[in-house]
Structure formats: structure tokens, C-alpha cells
Amino acid sequence: MAKQKIAYVCSDCGAEHTKWQGQCMACSEWNTLTRILLGPATAPSAPKNFKRPPGGGETGAPVASVQTLGKIDLDEQPRFTTTISEFDRVLGGGLVPGSVVLIGGNPGAGKSTLLLQVMCQLSQSMEALYVTGEESLQQVGMRARRLGLPVDNLKMLAETNVTEITRVAEERQPKIIVVDSIQVMYSADVASAPGSVSQVRECAAYLIQYAKQTGTALFLVGHVTKDGNLAGPKVLEHMIDCFMMLDGDGDSRYRTLRGQKNRFGAVNELGVFAMTGTGMKEVKNPSAIFLAREEDISPGSIVVVLWEGTRPLLVEIQALVDASQYGNPRRVSVGLDNNRVAMLLAVLHRHGGMFMADQDVFVNVVGGVRVAETSADLAVLLAIVSSFRNKALPRELVVFGEVGLAGEIRPVPSGQERLSEAAKHGFTRAIVPKANAPKKKIDGMDVIAVSKLSDAIDALLSSL
Length: 464
Ligand code: TYD
Ligand code: MG
Known about the structure:
Bound molecules: thymidine-5'-diphosphate, magnesium ion
Number of domains: 3
CATH architecture of the largest domain: 3-Layer(aba) Sandwich
CATH superfamily of the largest domain: P-loop containing nucleotide triphosphate hydrolases
Number of strands: 21
Radius of gyration: 26 Å
């Protein structure tokens, strides 16, 4: 028998090393290397004798042929809808046949529920196979009935052996497969336990190869902690086409589905769902839910217009500034990058003349939203100013803009659309970067365009 190859794989970044060492050379993490068996060097572990998609050789063997980029037939792979438009949006406009999508999230986020809803609907018009390795068939069946889903056509399989799964798939030829979850799958080719880096990697490679060769859309479910730590998903990221995270606080009923990688569409697209008593419901107008504000606004609260993928999103930012009891004042931010907030405070001191070194500063993005863009800079600073001065800001005010180290207010993309969205939600005043000032007046919106932080603070304080 051919000798088995051994590699040491980092569970954080997926880099491969030939020798074990304490620190990963690629990402510098400690104690993340795990020994994996790559299987016999000569025997390919992929399933044999797949039916090739049209275009392959007559014998089923792969035929290497060169094509001009412009002549490649694109109609061959039309996208199809998942029947949930928020989901389609994150996928970049529907599912591509033969694509592999990894859905990550904490246990209880709603991954199984969402995929079960999608699969039941899709099974009405195509062959669909749901592989459950975590829950029993009865459990899934009961859930589907309770949610009132169409249950007549979806094919179910309770199985964790990937060889068996591909065998069944070859027999039934589904157009779409869900594997829930990749962490419980195992392949007999690998000696280690399910859930280990080597098993997850090998099983995913096996299933992905099947999906690619047969043009089947494949959803893999992966449990990930917030920092993406659990074995598996990190090492999978470069094997799959799309990676999306389903996030949601335990106490909040809202779930956000965010694309982290997408070979077929814009990344960072955001889909919003609500977990209800009858399953996951899409939220078509997310601004409305994140903006539920009290009647009287307290100091430190402001609304910013973010840009999420291809659409604007209005969210509230809150700041609390309080005299520090300790020598080392606290800087805590939830939903924002801590370093960015520290940098903004330095700019505020240097260019806004406000001294915060003896103050604790807390900043929070309401509704559990995570801000990944710079357009919230100005809003964060103005919220801090508002709390520091203990003055509430006008309810009808929105703000966006990036703040530079020289105290300059920089423009952000899609200014016009952001303002229109704010106007649609009843806001009548806006402080925005000069270069984002609308060329055409927006009805009912009074826009103050600023180019320096000091101007923005003046505009703010004069509006109080
Ligand atoms: P689930 O889809 O099993 O999560 P995951 O597969 O990501 O681990 O969802 C489980 C949670 O969702 C559970 O805490 C209960 C809740 N839930 C509802 O609130 N309503 C429902 O209709 C369903 C099916 C689940
Ligand atoms: Mg589940």
C-alpha cells in the first residue's frame, strides 16, 4: 500500500507545514498545528465514476481543453432562487449550480431552520437532499411540520459517512444538497475523530469534489464561534465558493446573514431575518427595526446611515462619557473596532479641542449590528460630544462621514442614496462630508456639508 502522507495544518489559517512546530509560520498563532493524514499519496480519495456535466469527454474522463475567455458559454449555469430574497441577496442574486456555500454560526443561530425552509420550498420544483448528521429524522420532520412547510418532496438522509452520502447522491442525482453539519461528518480514509481539522478538511474536499463534478449546489453547515475558532471552517474558507455567517445575540430575535467571501457576488452583503415562533422570517426593511427609538432621545444617541453591500442601513449609535474613577480610563466599544474608537478620540482631542483622558468612554451600536466601514466615524465622535456635553441631539438628525487623522471629514461612497434613505425614514437634517453634499436638493432634507471636524462640532452645538 502506498505510504500515507502527513501534514501539519494550522486550525486558524489552514496553512500546511511539513513539520510540527509550536507557532504557525503563516499566521503566527501558537499551538494551532494539528497532524493530519493526507491519505495514500497515489490513491485519489475522491469518489469515482461520477457522471460528468455536459461538455466532458464521452468516456467520462476529464478532457483538458483551452477556451478563449470571451467565448465561454455563460448561459450554461443560470442561477436559481432559494425562494427567500434576503438569502438570494447575500448569495449575490441566487444560487449557482455546482457552487459550495458554507454557512457558519453559533449553535442555535438558526442555520438548520433556515436551510430546512429553503430546502422544503425548493423540493417542490427540483430534487433536493437534506443530510442531517446532528438531528434525527424525527426531529427534523417534527420541526418541518410545526413550521407548516411543504414536506412531500424533500429527500432526507440521516448519515455522517461522506462516502455513503455521495453514493446516495449519485443514485438520486439531487440538484441541491445540504450537509448539516460538516463537523460531524467522517471519512474512513482519515484516522482522527469527526470534528478534527483533518476530518473536516477531508470530508469537505470529498463533498466539494462531488458537487463540482456533478454541478450540484452544496450547502455545508459549520459551527463557528465569533472569533472563528472552532476546528474546520477556517481551513475550509479557501476550498469553498461562498462563506456566510449567521449571527444573532441569544436574546435578540434578529439574525443577520453576512457574506464573508463570495466568488459570485458582492461580499459584505447583509441579509436580515427574524427568528419567530414559525421559523425564520425575512426582514425586508431592516432600517425600521434597528431604529425603534424612545420618544425622548437621551444625550449620546445619534443615527448613522451605513452602507451594507448594496443598500443603506440606518442604525443608532450610543456613547456614554463619564468621569473615570481610575488612573487608566476605560475605552469600550461594542459593534465597532476598539482601535478605531481610540484613534477617533485622539482626533477629537487634537482637532476638536475636547479632552477625554480623564473620562471613561463607552460606544455601542444598537441592535447588535457590527460596523465594518468608516462612514460611522463622524457619528461616533458626535455621539461622544453629545454625551460629554450632556446634551441630547435632535431626533430628526442623521450623520455620516469618515474622519481623517488631520481632523478632515472625508467623503464616503453612495452619499446621495444614504440621504434619500434617511429622508424616507422621516429624517429632516443631516451633517455630511462636503463632497457628499447632494447636487440636487432632497425634498424635506436640510443638509449641512462640513469639511473639518471643528465645523461639524460647531454645526452640532449650534443645532442644540
Ligand atoms: P436551529 O436552526 O436549530 O439552530 P442551528 O442549526 O444554527 O444550531 O435553531 C435553534 C434555535 O431557534 C432554538 O434556540 C429555537 C429557535 N427557534 C425558534 O425560535 N422558532 C422556531 O420556529 C424554530 C424552528 C427554532
Ligand atoms: Mg443545527
